[in-house]
Amino acid sequence: MTTTELYVAPQGNDQNPGTGTSPFATLERARDALRELKAQDGLPPGGVTVWLQGGIYHRTESFSLSEEDSGTAEAPIVYRGCPGEEPRLVGGVEITDFQPVTDPEVLKRLREHVHGQVLQADLTAQGITDLGELRPRGYTRPTVPSALEVFFNGQPMRLARWPGHHYTWTTGLPGDSDIRIIGQGEDGFLYHDDILKEWGPVEDLWVYGYWVYDWADGHEKVTSFDPETGHIQTEPPYAIYGYRTGMRFEFYNLLEELNLPGEYYVDRKRGRLYFLPPGEITPGSVWVSLLEQPLLKLEGVSHVTFRELTLECARGNGVEISEGEQVTLAGCTLRNLGDWGVRVEGGQGHAVQSCELHDLGEGAISLSGGDLQTLTPSAHRADNNHIHHLGRWCKCYTEAVFMSGVGQQVTHNFIHDLPHIALRLTGAEHVMEFNETRDVCLDTGDAGSFYLGRNWAEQGNVVRFNFFHHTAGLNWGTNVVYLDDYAAGVLVYGNIIFRGQRGLFINGGRDHHIVNNIFIMCNEGAVRINTRPLPSDHPTYEDMRQKMEKVGAFGPPYTDRYPDLLKIKQHYEANESIPTEGHVVARNVVIDSDFLRTGTPNLLEALAAQDNVVGVSLEDIVEGCCTLRADSPAWPPGWEPIPFDQIGLYADEYRPANSLPRRTCFS
Description:
Elements: E1 5-8, H1 27-40, E2 48-52, E3 55-58, E4 63-65, E5 77-81, E6 87-90, E7 92-94, E8 99-100, H2 104-109, E9 119-122, E10 150-152, E11 155-156, E12 158-159, E13 161-162, E14 168-169, E15 182-183, E16 189-190, E17 206-210, E18 217-225, E19 231-234, E20 243-244, E21 248-252, E22 263-267, E23 272-276, E24 286-289, E25 296-299, E26 302-307, E27 310-314, E28 319-322, E29 325-330, E30 333-337, E31 342-345, E32 351-353, E33 356-360, E34 365-369, E35 381-383, E36 386-388, E37 401-405, E38 409-411, E39 414-416, E40 423-425, E41 431-433, E42 436-438, E43 450-453, E44 461-464, E45 467-469, E46 479-484, E47 490-493, E48 496-500, E49 502-507, E50 513-515, E51 518-522, E52 527-530, H3 539-551, H4 558-561, H5 564-573, E53 583-586, E54 589-591, E55 596-598, H6 603-606, E56 607-610, E57 613-616, H7 618-621, E58 622-623, E59 627-628
Parallel strand pairs: 1-2, 2-5, 3-6, 4-25, 5-26, 6-27, 12-22, 25-28, 26-29, 27-30, 28-31, 29-32, 30-33, 31-34, 32-35, 33-36, 34-37, 35-38, 36-39, 37-40, 38-41, 39-42, 40-43, 41-44, 42-45, 43-46, 44-47, 45-48, 46-49, 47-50, 48-51, 49-52, 50-53, 51-54, 52-55, 53-56, 54-57
Antiparallel strand pairs: 7-24, 8-9, 9-23, 10-11, 10-24, 13-21, 14-21, 15-20, 16-19, 17-18, 17-21, 18-19, 22-23, 58-59
C-alpha cells in the first residue's frame, strides 16, 4: 500500500476507500486509515496528505490524535482543506423554526416595544438538551467552557443585559459609600436604581464587572437583590478583591432586558431560545455552540500539520496541543469559540502560522514550554497571525499571545481591537519582534500593549522592532510597554511607540535596556520610571525570592548568563532592600512627548540616559506617509535603522498579498 493521499467529505461514507471520488465521511476514519498504513508498510517518503473537501463537519467530540498518529520529519502528515473550498469543523448546530412569542407570561416580561420582534425557538424539539451553564469566571479564575452561545451570520450575539450598551456603576457598600473602602465579597454591594423594581423575581441573574480595579474582572451569580435598598449579594466564590463604590458593572441573563437587536435569552427550564435578530433569519444564519471540548486535541503528536481549515462555534478551546514536536496550524481560521483559540503546553517547535483568530471568548494563543531550570527553549512560534476582537467573556489577561516557559517566538502578528493586553509573558528568553498592535486596552486601565512583571528570574526577554500604536486605556490609563513590579533584564529595542498615554513604564526593577526606540505623541511622557526599591519587609520580597529558588536562578546557568542575579542574591543574603538600578535608556528619539518622567527620587542611581534626541518633529524623521528617513540628521549617534516596512503581516503561501491590511500612517 503506497497511499500518499486520502480524502474526506461531509457527504462521504466511512465504508468508502477514501479516494477523491469515494471519500471518507469523518476525520476519525482517515486517522484510522493512517494507523493501518503505518502498521502495514509505514508512511511513504514525503508523507501523506488528508484532503478535506468543503462543507460542515459537525463535531460532537474532539478530533483526538496521540503519539501513534505522528508523522516524521521525512514523512509528515498533513490535514488540509482542498484548494478553493472551505472545510469547517463546527462544534454546534443550526437553529431553525423560529416563531413569534405568543405566551402571555413571556410577553408580560418583555418590553412592549419589542413585542412582535422577539422570536422563540424550541431547543428541546430540535434535539438540544445540553444548554450549558453560566459559571464564575474572570481574573485569577480557571478557564471554563461557556454556556450555549448564539451566532448570527457568523457574528456572536449577546445575552440580554442591562444597561444595553454601556456599564453602570456600583453606588455603595453596605454601611459605607467611601470609594476608598474595599468591601468584603460576602457583603455584596449597593446599586440604587429604579430599574431593579421592574424586574421582579429573576432566576439565574448574573453581574459582570471590574469590582475594585480596572484590570481585574469577574462574573458573579446574584443570590439576592432588594429593589428597595439596592443591596445585591452574590454567590461564592466571591470576586477576588471584594467590591468598591463607583466601579463599572452590568447585569445580564435577563429576559426583561431583551430589547436590543442581537440579544438573546435561554430559558433553561423550558428549553427555549428567545432572540431579537439583528437582521432577517435565513437558512444557515443562526447557530448555537454545543461542544465543550476542544475541536482538535493533540497529545504527544509530532510532525503533523493542519492547514486551511475553519474551526468555529464551540464552547471551549479551539485547539489543545500537549507535548510532541513540530505540530503546525497554518492558514486556519479560528472564530466564535467560547474560550481560547490555541493552547500549547510543552513539547518542542509547535507553530501557529498565518492564521486568523477572532471573536473568541477569552484569548487567542497561549504558548508554554521549555525548561526553566536549564533555560532550554521550546521554540514554539506564533507568526504572521491576524488576531482581533477577543475577550468576549473574560476581558482581563486574555491576550492575543501569552508566552510562558522559555524561548517562545512571537513575530509578525497584527493585533487589534482588544479589551486588555496584546502580548504578555512569564518566563525567560522569549522574543517578540515585528508585531503591530493598535486599539488595545479598550476596556481596561493600568495596562499596556506588552506586559510582564514581578519575577527577577524572567531574564533575557526581547521586545524588538514592533509598532505599538493607538493604545487606549481608561482611568489611570496605559503604559504601552509595561515593565511592572520589579521586572528585570528586558531589552526593548527598535520599537515605534505612537499615540499612547505613557510610552514605556519601568515600575522598579533592574537592568532594562531601552535603546533605539521612537516615541511619538505619548501625552504623559515617553519614558516613566518609578525608582522604588523592594523593601525586605514587603510581601513581594519573599515571593520573588521563592520564584528565584524554584528555578535555580541564584546559580548557573542563570548567573552565567545574567550576572546581576548575583547582586540580587547578595541583597537577599543580607536581608536588605533591593534597589532599582542598572537601567539604560539610550539612543531613543522622542517626538511631541516629554522624554522622562519620574515621581520618585534617586533617578541618577537607577538609570543611565545617554544620546537620546528630544524635541525633533515628525517631519524630521518621516517622508511621505509611512517611510522613515534613512538620512535624517535627527538620528542619534550609533542609530540602527528600524525596518518599518517589515513590521506586521507578510504574504506567504497561506496569506495572499491582496489580503494584507493597509499600513497605518503616522496620523
